[in-house]
From TrEMBL:
Belongs to the dTDP-4-dehydrorhamnose reductase family. One of its GO terms (cellular component) is cytosol. This is dTDP-4-dehydrorhamnose reductase. It catalyses: dTDP-beta-L-rhamnose + NADP(+) = dTDP-4-dehydro-beta-L-rhamnose + NADPH + H(+). It comes from Pseudomonas mangrovi. The keyword Oxidoreductase applies. InterPro entries: dTDP_dehydrorham_reduct (IPR005913), NAD(P)-bd_dom_sf (IPR036291), RmlD-like-bd (IPR029903). GO terms for biological process: dTDP-rhamnose biosynthetic process; O antigen biosynthetic process. Catalyzes the reduction of dTDP-6-deoxy-L-lyxo-4-hexulose to yield dTDP-L-rhamnose. Keywords: NADP, Oxidoreductase. Its EC number is 1.1.1.133. One of its GO terms (molecular function) is dTDP-4-dehydrorhamnose reductase activity.
Length: 307
């Protein structure tokens, strides 16, 4: 099986590239080779490669910068997936696409279901929602997988930023009133393998929209506290963490206070369930060098006041 993977140089794309090798030939395409902002290039690549499956891990994820680059974010996150869906439909092959908890405004008291009303608070969320709608309009065999608070051992994300800042600072202020589920890229990759194998063996559930995050919930402060505990266990320098409200850390883009996603439909329809976020985080940390210090900037959540 030939799998076209877009965004292969991003943190999720890099992990998927490793994991997908177990089920087929991965045609990895970073942005330099397949730019989701370039519709003509998307069509040309798909028609030349003629993959058996397309996985779109590419996206514009700079949430705050999207407020001033809304047009670019729209082309990449909204128009690009629509073109991929059209080309996948023309070939008669499935498309797996990743979306985000940021399609919601965070006002619901409990976890969001797939059918709950969407109301993104920022340009990034609006562009991702439009991408979902573009795929749904085309139809065909597709999976839209909403995930949240993604991190990995590489790239720019909250985990690596915390590992650096906690060792550099004496004190660190982190937002404590935004709730969600930190989700490791390798957990996502393993789940994708399960989905692909279900499709290959004829045991697939219905195509469509699903939530896919780690089990459990925490705040950004809780996430940072778990990382801090790891540093302390390793007897490494660790700053004192101070919980703060979102109002103490204004950003160009508003974030939802509640990013909890109910993932029961994916488990019921496809038999896929990600592990608890605490277990996944520990597994990720165990794979890092003991004294790993990152120079990465904060990831898309960016819930840390490090000034």
């Amino acid at each position: 099986m030939r799998i076209l993977l877009t965004g292969s140089s991003g943190q999720l794309g890099l992990t998927l590239q490793q994991g997908l090798a177990a089920v087929g030939e991965v045609l990895a395409r970073p942005r330099a080779q397949l730019d989701l902002a370039d519709s003509a290039q998307i069509r040309r690549q798909v028609r030349e490669l003629r993959p058996d499956l397309i996985i779109n891990a590419g996206a514009y994820t700079a949430v705050d910068r999207a407020e001033s680059e809304a047009e670019l974010a729209w082309r990449i996150n909204a128009e690009g997936p629509g073109v991929l869906a059209e080309e996948a439909g023309a070939l008669g092959v499935p498309l797996i696409h990743f979306s985000t908890d940021y399609v919601f405004d965070g006002s619901k008291p409990g976890a969001y279901l797939e059918d709950d009303p969407t109301a993104p608070l920022n340009a990034y969320g609006r562009s991702k929602l439009a991408g979902e709608q573009a795929l749904s309009a085309v139809g065909g065999q597709h999976l839209i997988l909403r995930t949240s608070w993604v991190y990995s051992q590489h790239g720019s994300n909250f985990l690596l930023s915390m590992l650096r800042l906690l060792q550099e600072r004496d004190e660190l202020r982190v937002v404590a009133d935004q709730i969600g589920a930190p989700t490791w890229t390798w957990s996502i990759a393993k789940a994708c393998l399960q989905l692909i194998r279900a499709w290959q063996t004829g045991t697939a559930g219905p195509w469509g929209l699903y939530h896919m995050t780690a089990q459990g919930e925490t705040s950004w402060y809780g996430f940072a506290s778990a990382i801090a505990q790891h540093l302390k266990t390793q007897r490494l320098p660790c700053a004192r963490l101070i919980p703060i409200p979102s109002s103490d850390y204004p950003t160009p883009a508003r974030r939802p206070a509640n990013s909890r996603l109910d993932c029961s439909r994916l488990c019921q329809d496809w038999g896929v369930e990600l592990p608890p976020w605490q277990l996944a985080l520990q597994a990720c940390l165990d794979q890092l060098p003991p004294a790993r210090v990152s120079t990465a900037a904060p990831g898309i959540g960016d819930p840390c006041n490090n000034s």
